[in-house]
Fold this protein.
Amino acid sequence: MGMPISIDIPSCSDDKIFETIFKWFKQVDERFSPFKKNSELSKYNRGEFSGSELSSDMRDIIESCNRWKEITGGYFSAWYNQEFDPSGYVKGWSIKKAGNLINGLGFKTYCIGAGGDIMACSDGQKEWTIGIQDPGDVKKILKRLSIKNSAVATSGTYERGKHIINPKTCKPADEFMSVSIIGPDIITADVLSTTLFAMGNKGIEFVSKFADYDAVFIAA
């Protein structure tokens, strides 16, 4: 997926289980990468697949991205230059699916991290400590969180530069250095972190609509 991925399952010592989960992430990259010529996404954008020929996962992702575009008033958009790129949705989606795989294998306590997004689950005993980086000095931690069965998603400019575009201005968003969202669902947290970063200061009020989610904004 073009990003570091980590998986921690404290009670598991079976390498095959970790191989299964990493294989899932590799499959996601092969199917939904906008950079791979033969991915389902690239073929869809070239018009080689009609709606009925798309996988059920792709159809669900398109539908979900369109729904989030409506919810956010267009600040979350997976359409760029008339091409579909759901990268801002697929990362959280793939993490959640990986968690479902781990649950299906009988493990309830685990932590998955991918490119700044983290889903931490617990059987009720373990608390996971998650650090929010200082975007001005990535060797420092600005805030530590103790979470159970929760997700943290961060969008920022300090690793990939100004890559988040404000769809309203078609220019890179630059009012924040980073936005972190903490809440129960990794997909929602992932979408909101991107959305609020693109919104700029408007995002501070917008996030209040999501009662189960907290935000950490770091101004530019």
Notes: The chain has a mean pLDDT of 93. The helical segments are 15-32, 40-45, 56-71, 87-104, 186-199, 202-206. The radius of gyration is 17 Å. The chain is about 35% helix and 30% strand.
